[in-house]
């Protein structure tokens, strides 16, 4: 299981994250809040020039974590229905094809795509068996909103309860199934070109909540919450780059692109380990020969 999991059996990380979320919502006296905001910006190396408001104007840490960007800070590099763009700012930590339902983490260990999204292997998510996967890690300094990677409609969502282990080098080194072990909230999108996409938002230590714009559900609000899958009815229409959800701090997004009826071809300029921005081109679907 790894030492991190054993520790978390004793120390309830979910409770700690809920408490952190509550504390981060507290609005301090203005002079003190300014000092806290400036300290966070300095320690996390946040690019304050991109924030929609002056850093001193955010009334809580959570408001600063979930800050909006100034208009037009992130051009959306999408020129049609066959393209996919990054839904977040972050670091590209893993790319590659899912092999018979299994994909790799950053340590080269495999885990189930079906388990990741909380679906059965013989369900409507059978397309995951040969999907193309990309994993993007968000650090505390990053913009924490999540946007649509494609134009289309959100047709379903899944919540899979789990731990809130740290999603970093230490966590990956010590836990074999880190991503599917953690709490996940997945948006299933049908792109306009007929292809399917899963946007898996993975919780982590101190990620107080994960929310989506098309449903009132938020993760980690109560000690116990049952997993579920439900349709989004009516389907929630999105354009590539449109708001989809938010991390209240930071974690990881796993993208799964259908790779069956059409072939998903990643942007050849991308390299594992590089920083990417919301709206940058991840790849596009091409007709199979």
Q: Could you name the key traits of this structure?
A:
289 residues, alpha+beta, 17 strands, disordered N terminus
The average pLDDT is 84
Fraction in helix: 10-25%
Strand content: 25-35%
Name the overall outline.
globular
Strand arrangement within the widest β-sheet reads 12-7-8-9-14-5-2-16
Biggest sheet statistics: 8 strands, antiparallel
**What is the β-strand count?**
17
Number of helices: 7
Radius of gyration: 18 Å
Which residues form runs of ≥5 with pLDDT under 50? 1-19
Topology as H/E string?
HHHHEEEEHEEEHHEEEEEEEEEE
Task: Calculate the terminal CA-CA distance, rounded to whole Å.
Answer: 44 Å
Given helix and strand content, the structural type is alpha+beta
Give a brief outline of the structure.
By secondary structure, the protein is α+β, with helices and mostly antiparallel strands. The chain is 19% helix and 32% strand. The chain is globular.
Structure notes:
The protein is an alpha+beta fold and 289 residues long. The protein contains seven helices and 17 strands. It has helices at residues 3-10, 13-25, 30-44, 61-65, 113-117, 169-174, 178-181; strands spanning 83-85, 90-97, 102-104, 110-112, 132-137, 145-147, 152-160, 184-191, 196-202, 210-212, 215-218, 228-238, 243-247, 252-257, 262-266, 275-276, 281-287. The chain has an eight-stranded antiparallel β-sheet with strand order 12-7-8-9-14-5-2-16, with no helix packed on it. A four-stranded antiparallel β-sheet has the order 6-13-10-11, with no helix packed on it. Strand 8 (184-191) and strand 9 form a beta hairpin. It is globular. The protein starts with a helix and ends with a strand.
């Amino acid at each position: 299981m790894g030492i991190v999991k054993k520790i978390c059996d004793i120390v309830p990380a979910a409770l700690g994250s809920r408490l952190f979320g509550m504390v981060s919502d507290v609005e301090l006296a203005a002079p003190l809040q300014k000092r806290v905001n400036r300290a966070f910006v300095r320690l996390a190396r946040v690019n304050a020039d991109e924030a929609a408001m002056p850093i001193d104007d955010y009334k809580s840490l959570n408001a600063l974590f979930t800050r909006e960007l100034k208009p037009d800070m992130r051009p959306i590099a999408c020129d049609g229905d066959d393209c996919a763009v990054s839904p977040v700012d972050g670091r590209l930590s893993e790319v590659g094809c899912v092999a018979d339902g299994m994909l790799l983490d950053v340590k080269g260990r495999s885990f189930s795509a079906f388990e990741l999204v909380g679906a059965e292997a013989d369900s409507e998510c059978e397309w995951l068996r040969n999907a193309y996967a990309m994993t993007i890690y968000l650090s505390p300094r990053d913009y924490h909103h999540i946007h649509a990677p494609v134009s289309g409609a959100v047709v379903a969502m899944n919540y899979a309860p789990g731990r809130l282990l740290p999603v970093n080098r230490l966590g990956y080194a010590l836990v074999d199934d880190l991503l599917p072990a953690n709490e996940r909230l997945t948006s299933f999108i049908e792109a306009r070109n007929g292809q399917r996409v899963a946007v898996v938002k993975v919780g982590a230590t101190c990620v107080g909540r994960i929310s989506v714009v098309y449903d009132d559900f938020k993760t980690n609000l109560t000690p116990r919450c049952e997993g579920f899958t439900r349709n989004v009815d009516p389907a929630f229409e999105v354009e590539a780059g449109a708001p989809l959800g938010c991390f209240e701090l930071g974690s990881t997004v796993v993208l799964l692109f259908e790779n069956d009826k059409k072939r998903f071809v990643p942007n050849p300029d991308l390299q594992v380990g590089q920083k990417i921005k919301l709206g940058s081109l991840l790849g596009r679907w091409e007709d199979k020969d």
